[in-house]
Amino acid sequence: MTEPIVMYKDVHKSFGDVSVLRGIDLDIKPGEKVAVIGPSGSGKTTIIRMLMTLEQPTSGSIIVDGKNLWQMEKGGQLVPANEKHLREVRGDIGMVFQHFNLFPHMTILENCMTAPVQVKKEDKATAKKHSIEMLEKVGLGDKLDNYPSQLSGGQKQRVAMARALVMRPKIMLFDEVTSALDPELVGEVLEVIRDIAKEGEMAMVLVTHEMDFALDVADRVLFLDNGVIAEQGPPSQVLEHSENERLQSFLHRFRK
Amino acid sequence: MNNWSWEIFLEAFPYVLEGIGITIGLTIACYLFALIFGFIWTFVRRIPVKPVRWVILWIMEFIRSTPPLVQLFFIYYAWPMVPGIGMTLSPFTSAVLGLGIHYSTYIGEVYRSGIDGVDKGQWEASRALNFSTRQKWTKIILPQAIPPTIPMLGNYLIIMFKEVPLASTIGVVGILQMANNFGAENWRYLEPLTIVAILFLVLSYPSAILINKLERKMNRRFDKKTPTGSKPISKANAPG
User: Fold this and answer.
1) Which residues on neighbouring strands pair with residue A11, listed in sequence order?
2) What is the Cα–Cα distance from B58 to B123, expressed in whole angstroms?
C-alpha cells in the first residue's frame, strides 16, 4: 500500500469563537482525486486553505509527503513552523482560486513563467517553452501577450490553472473554481480539469458545488457538515446511495 | 524709485538664477531621501511585534506634528550640542535630513495606502506559487502597489520643491536667498522676488503636467478594468 501524500490528523480550526473544523482526519493517496462537498460554512474551503498554508490550524497536524507542515523540529522540540519551513514543505502543492488571483500587471505568459523562473530557478527559455505548452493545453495559446483584464472569467481561470500546473505540483487544490464564473463559462473550465485529472499522476482536492462533475472526476467524495467529515466514499455511493439525512437534504437542494 | 524696472529685472535675473542649481539639487536630494526613508517606515511598521509598532507609530506622529522649520533648526543648531551622538552638519546636509525625514513620514503613508490597495488574493497567489518573501514584494506586491500612488508621490515632489526655501533659514543659498541678497545689496526687492515666484511657477507647473502624463502611462501599463483597445490583442494575434 502506498503512503498517503497528505495526512490530516485531528485537525481543528477556529476563527475567534467560531469553530469551523472540529477534528478532521483524512489521508490522500498520491494521484487520488478527492472532491469535497458540503453546505457553505461547513469548512470545506478551510481544509484546503490550511494545506496551502493560507490558514493555520488551531490544533492537530498536517503531514505532507512525510513532513509535518505546520510544525518543525528545533532543539528536539516541535515548534510552530517558520516561513522557511513552510516554503520547503508546500513546494509540491499548487492551488487554483475561486477569484483566479492572476497577476494583473503581467501578461498571461508572464503570469505562468514568473514562478518557475523565480522560485524553481528554471532558465527563462525552458520556463517560457513549458508555459506556452501549458497555455496551449488549456486553449489559450493565442493570448500569450494579453493582460488578464482582457480575458473572460473562464479564460482567466484556465490561465490560473496553467500557472499552477507549470510548477508541476504533486497535489493540486481547487477552491470552488467555477463559483465566480458565468454559467456558460463553467463548462470550459471543468473540461480542462477533466483533462488534467485523466493524466493521473497528480493528487487533486476539489472543493466544488458541481455534483455531476464530482461524480465524474473524483475517486472519492467527502461530505463535510458542521466541521467534520460526515460521509465519504466512492462518488456513486456518496452521491446516490447514502443514507445520511443531512447529505440527502443537501443533495436534494442541488437537484431541484 | 519703487516703480517696476525692467533694467533691474534683467540685472537681477542672472543673479537669482545662480541659486537654481541649489534649489533643484536640494529638492531632488530631499525627495530621494524621503522616497527611500519612506520605505523604511513602511516596513518597520509591518514588524509583527506590537510594542515596536507603537514606538514607530509614535515617532512618525511626532515627526509629522512638528513643523519642518523647527526640525531644520534643531538639526542644524541643536544637534551638534547633543552629547555623545551630536555632530556638526553642513546646511545642505541638515536640510536634506530635516526635510527628507519630515516628508518620509508622509511618503511612508502613501506607500502603505498603495500596499493596502493590493487585493488579498495577490498575497495568497504568491504563497500558493511559493515565492520567497523578497520575490513576493519585488515581483508581485510593489509593482501593483506603487503605480497607483504615483500621482500622490508626484504631488509630494512639488510640495517638497515649494518647501525647500525653508532651508534658506539655515543658510542654504537657493533662489530665494539669492533674491534676498540682491535686495539687500541694491535695495530692490520687487524684481528679484518676482523672479523667484516666476521660477517656481515655471518649474512646478510643467512638473505637474509631467506627473499627470506619467500617471496615465502607468495606468495604461497596469491596466485595470478597461481593456486598452485593440492594440495588444492585434499584437497577440499577429503571426510570429
Assistant:
1) A24
2) 28
- Residues constituting chain A: 256
Residue B165 inside a domain? The answer is yes
Residue B193, in any domain of the structure: yes
Three cell numbers, residue A63: 503531514
Contact status of B223 with chain A (Cβ, < 8 Å):
yes
pLDDT digits (tens, 9 = 90+) for B29-81: 999 999 999 999 999 998 989 999 999 999 999 999 999 999 999 999 999 99
The answer to whether position B113 is within a domain reads yes
Establish if A142 touches chain B: CB-CB under 8 angstroms. Answer: yes
Give which of A45, A87, A118, A165 to mutate to test B binding, by max B Cβ within 10 Å.
Answer: A118
Whether residue B113 is predicted with pLDDT greater than 90 in this model: the reply is: yes
- Domain map (residue ranges) of chain A: 6-101+169-255
A205 near A34, Cβ under 8 Å?
Answer: yes
- Which structural domain, as residue segments, surrounds residue B105? 6-224
Would you tell me which CATH number, out of the four given (1.10.10.10, 3.40.50.300, 3.40.50.2300, 1.10.1060.10), belongs to the domain A6-101+169-255? 3.40.50.300
Q: In the numeric block, which cell numbers belong to residue B144?
A: 501593483
The answer as to whether B219 is a domain residue is yes
B135–A149 C-beta distance less than 8 A: no
**ipTM exceeds 0.85:** yes
Count of domains in chain B?
A: 1
How many angstroms separate the CA atoms of B103 and B32, rounded?
A: 10
d(C-alpha A227, C-alpha A8), whole Å: 14
pLDDT for residue B239 is more than 60: no
Gap between the Cα atoms of A43 and A22, Å rounded: 9
Residues 102-131 of B with CB under 8 A from A: 119, 121-122, 124-125, 127-131
At residue A40, what are phi and psi to the nearest 5 degrees? -65, 145
